[in-house]
Amino acid sequence: MSLRDKIDELKKPFGKGEKLEKWAPAINALDTFLYVPNHTTKKGAHIRDGVDLKRTMITVVLALLPALIYGMYNTGYQHFSQISGSDLSFLSCFMYGLWKVLPMVVVSYGVGLAIEFAFAIYRGHEVNEGYLVTGLLIPLIMPVDIPLWMVAISVVFAVIIGKEAFGGTGMNILNPALTARAFAFFAYPTYMSGTKVWVSEATNIDAISGETILGKLAGGKEVAYSTMDMFSGAIPGSIGETSTLWILVGALILIITGVGSWRIMAGGLIGAIGMGLIFNAVSANDLMAFPWYNHLVVGGFAFGLVFMATDPVSAAQTTKGKWIYGILVGMFCLLIRIFNPAYPEGVMMAILLMNVFAPTIDHYVIEGSVKKRKKRLAAKLKTT
């Protein structure tokens, strides 16, 4: 008996009118995870295509894997590099990072999917695949030593308040992963900021310093890392956000497959470079004097721009709106970094702020397009 036959046999008690019908979304989720759904639209306009939500989400997960793998390695490297006599081989560093990061991923997926299944059963609809990406994003934007119970509570808040309260996948106005980080940042600030949270075991070993580059600049301290160190990712920071190199690999996957908007990414770069050049010309403090190109490769800017600003649900939808949205994300990221010493990161707040204004941007873009068409029509009627 094939796997397909076994699943069909397993699904029989969950069919319509059967005693386990209420729990059908749970078993159907397993089916659609392994196989393409066998149903099609019956009415209304539709396009027959091989791309569905599941394939889109899996593509994003694949694009995240390079940053995840490097993040695991860097977790071990940052820990061992500050302890004299430690083994700095790739395998040693990666295994340490795997031991630290994997439990966070398991907790994120376990708690998040449990809530998704519960809401699907309660509401009587199928389980959506949207959390496949969110479940991996949340651990990647957290400090490595954050307690697992804090990760779990942040996930609960993000899924229930940030997503299900608005109707579930496709209805949320804020990016769920950033909602989880924002909740953790304001609820547990000592675990999400400071000089000891970005390198594993920094709080337990006096010799280890875990301050980020932006944190040092905000505190008026000297930065010893080169631009290449910042670009490659061999620096302290959130698990998946340090390596711009591997984030760019993920960006290429998203752009080539058409899953991520290159317009938003390009707009974000334009906005950040423009603000960076302006502040470099002023150079009133260390953050303003920090070269504009270094701003692009430190903190969560690259990761946020590629994987969260491009979220098709919470981002702008129109072509012109995507450019405006991306440019404003880049501009606000640097504005927040430089003018808020208490939070020298910026990208989380910038994206969440623009998530709120994305519908407004699209509204005025569409209104502007309608007015232009009316003017062209009026001019054409006059000439005829």
Your description of this structure?
The N and C termini lie far apart (72 Å). This protein is globular. The chain has 384 residues and is mainly α. The mean pLDDT is 86. It is built from 17 helices and no strands. Helix 3 runs parallel beside helix 5, helix 4 packs across helix 5 and helix 11 packs parallel to helix 15.
Helix content: 55-70%
Overall average residue pLDDT: 86
Based on CA atoms alone, the radius of gyration comes out at 23 Å
Helix- and strand-based class? mainly alpha
What's the N-to-C terminus distance? 72 Å
Strand coverage percent:
under 5%
**Count of DSSP-assigned helices:** 17
Brief account:
The chain is built from 17 helices and no strands. The protein is mostly helical and 384 residues long. It has two domains: 8-36 and 53-210, no CATH class; 249-384, no CATH class.
Give the helix/strand layout.
Elements: H1 3-11, H2 24-34, H3 53-80, H4 90-123, H5 131-140, H6 148-160, H7 176-187, H8 189-192, H9 213-218, H10 227-232, H11 244-257, H12 262-282, H13 286-289, H14 292-295, H15 301-307, H16 319-339, H17 347-383
Key words describing this protein structure:
384 residues, mainly alpha, 2 domains, 17 helices, NAD
